[in-house]
Amino acid sequence: MFLRYHLPTLLWALFILTICAVPGDRIPKLSFLEWLKPDKIVHLLVFGMLCILLLRSFLDANALNLSEKNAIIIALSICIVYGALVEFLQYSVFINRSGDVRDAIANSIGAFLGWWAYNRFFKKQKKKLKA
């Protein structure tokens, strides 16, 4: 049961840390996408997915017996703190990387979008399966 619900979340968090630790000079430049600012879109998507996985871990596995409200608060808090921590590590530890407050904000917005997506799509899907 642990692996089914929690392993994807842990692997995704490790994936985020890994891609954020890649030295800046090794990240390919996609000039044709420069006007889209794909950097911020990636932050939104990556942390949105982290929030979805956390909510799935907390609510679907129900191993911690959390109320839905507490699960949401904890999942959003983890995403926001983890997003800020990653940016701090980019600023202070990782080579050729720079932490950015705007990226931390994008991480947080992504977490809230993940919460919205979970409520909009996954929660409805669960209700249909139970009916």
Features:
single chain, 131 residues, mainly alpha, 4 helices
Low-confidence stretches: none
Mean pLDDT: 84
* Rough outline: elongated
Question: Total domains, how many?
Answer: 1
Radius of gyration: 16 Å
**Secondary-structure element pattern, one letter each:** HHHH
Strand content: under 5%
Please report the number of helical segments: 4
| Assembly annotation | single chain
Portion in helices: over 70%
- Tally of DSSP β-strands: 0
- Summing up helix and strand content along with how strands pair, one would put the structural category as mainly alpha
Distance between the terminal alpha carbons, to the nearest Å? 23 Å
Largest sheet: none
Helices and strands in order, then pairings?
Layout: H1 2-21, H2 38-60, H3 68-92, H4 101-130
Helix pairs in contact: 1-2, 1-3, 2-3, 2-4, 3-4
Describe the structure.
The model has no long low-confidence stretch (mean pLDDT 84). Helix 2 (38-60) runs antiparallel to helix 3 (68-92). The protein has one domain. It contains four helices and no strands. It is mainly α and 131 residues long.
In short:
The chain is mainly alpha-helical and 131 residues long.
